[in-house]
Design a protein that fits this description.
- May act as a substrate-specific adapter of an E3 ubiquitin-protein ligase complex (CUL3-RBX1-BTB) which mediates the ubiquitination and subsequent proteasomal degradation of target proteins.
- The protein is of the alpha+beta class.
- Among the domains are: 110 residues, Apoptosis, Tumor Necrosis Factor Receptor Associated Protein 2, Chain A (Sandwich), CATH 2.60.210.10; 150 residues, 2-Layer Sandwich (Potassium Channel Kv1.1, Chain A).
- The longest helix has 18 residues.
- 23% of the residues are buried.
- It has a 4-stranded antiparallel beta sheet with strand order 1-2-3-7. Strands 4, 5, 6 and 8 form a 4-stranded antiparallel beta sheet that branches.
- A hairpin with a 6-residue loop joins strand 13 and strand 14.
- The chain has 16 helices and 14 strands.
- The protein is elongated.
Length: 396
């Protein structure tokens, strides 16, 4: 077999003829398409080589076919081109083409592509797609809406087909066999993720300062519909009317949970990407809990790496999000402990010349283990050590 034009080809030789009952007095020779293909257009040449050195080769070629005749078209794998009566057998046995009971055949295959490259004599500027803008205007004008959603007392109007096309959850809710009885007016309840309900009841100044200023569920639904029509996220500060630097992070956290609920994979990944870029002391524990609950593995890894840094860990442990993380995601706490241990293990330097480290302070955890930061005077290298109580277990 050999490869030409992205297709495999094979040569078939029949010494007693391809159909012995019809042409047993002749040898048959064919080239066949040996790989998958449909309407493969090609030109062929078969050359029976003179092995006496006289170069009186027998050539069967179709490379000289006129454009009107065109190449041959092989419809499917196994299609053949060749000759049932390629050479009379008795003459072949007495010819110079046969030497030591062996024939030498040269095959040429030219695959004809439909597309021909050439100089372009035109320049047409194709504008970028504006389908998102067009659908967005459909939402903005409210024309043709056939479903409404009530969220925290505010009503939103939308189009069933758009929602069904964008979300498998809405598709089932609006058109599936288990669709709701009233698909024209739907009351949306309990859209908020559990972590935010917890934080609303806690004295969390960060969340209270933003979330209490405006109904986040309403803003969340605005952003959700904006994405489903525009395929992009709105400006969060413009949407909420707030200029807090935490607005984008908080909205991304809310939208991450909503995206998972409604099967909006692209939105989930957009939020995950935004949160990876905006990891901060005040919000990382909440983000880590969301990453665990909504299976955002890359976001989870970024948060663990951030929290495991000793100078970050102390501050994160003081946040309300960390309290929720401990209560709702015990497995993450175990992973965090292991991550911290690995970070500290890799940050410990070998003391040179037996010089002892001088400890400048420590923080104790509940289990009795101590996170100790130290300073080696040798070459002024900083290090961190973890000293345990020997039990190897404990809670934060």
């Amino acid at each position: 077999m050999f490869m030409v034009g992205g297709y495999l080809w094979a040569v078939y030789f029949y010494p007693d003829g391809k159909s012995p009952e019809d042409n047993a007095a002749y040898v048959s020779l064919f080239i066949a398409l040996a790989s998958e293909g449909t309407d493969v257009r090609a030109l062929f040449e078969l050359t029976l080589l003179d092995q006496s050195g006289k170069e009186r080769h027998k050539v069967h070629s179709h490379f000289g076919r006129t454009l009107e005749s065109g190449p041959y078209s092989l419809k499917y794998r196994g299609s053949m081109w060749g000759y049932k009566r390629f050479f009379r057998r008795t003459l072949l046995e007495q010819s110079d083409y046969l030497k030591n009971d062996c024939l030498s055949v040269h095959c040429s295959v030219g695959v004809v592509k439909s597309h021909t490259e050439g100089p372009k004599f035109y320049s047409i500027a194709v504008p970028p797609s504006r389908i998102g803008h067009h659908f967005g205007q459909l939402l903005k004008t409210g024309k043709g809406t056939d479903v409404s959603f009530e969220v925290d007392g505010e009503v939103f109007y939308a189009h069933k087909l758009v929602l069904a096309a964008r979300s498998p959850v809405f598709r089932a809710q609006l058109f599936g066999p288990m669709k709701e009885q009233n698909t024209k007016q739907i009351k949306v309840e309990d859209i908020e993720a559990p972590v935010f309900k917890f934080l609303e009841t806690s004295p969390c100044k960060l969340y209270a300062g933003v979330a209490d200023a405006y109904a986040f569920e309403v803003n969340l639904w605005h952003a959700l519909l904006h994405f489903m029509y525009w395929d992009s996220l709105p400006d969060m500060q413009e949407l909420t009317g707030l200029d807090s630097k935490w607005v984008t992070t908080l909205m991304s956290q809310h939208l991450l949970a909503a995206a998972d609920r409604y099967g909006l994979e692209r939105l989930r990944l957009l939020c995950e990407s935004n949160l990876c870029e905006d990891v901060a002391i005040n919000t990382v524990a909440t983000t880590l809990a969301l990453a665990e609950q909504h299976h955002c593995f890359q976001l989870k890894a970024v948060c663990l790496k951030f929290v495991a840094v000793p100078e970050n860990l102390r501050a994160v442990m003081q946040t309300d999000g960390f309290v929720y993380l401990k209560e709702s995601c015990p497995s993450v706490m175990t992973e965090l402990l292991e991550y911290v241990a690995r970070v500290i293990e890799h940050s410990v330097y070998v003391c040179k010349h037996g010089i002892e480290p001088i400890f400048d302070g420590s923080d104790a955890n509940v289990s009795g283990g101590r996170i100790i930061s130290g300073l080696w005077k040798d070459e002024e290298e900083k290090c961190v050590k973890l000293r345990g109580d020997g039990r190897g277990k404990g809670k934060w």
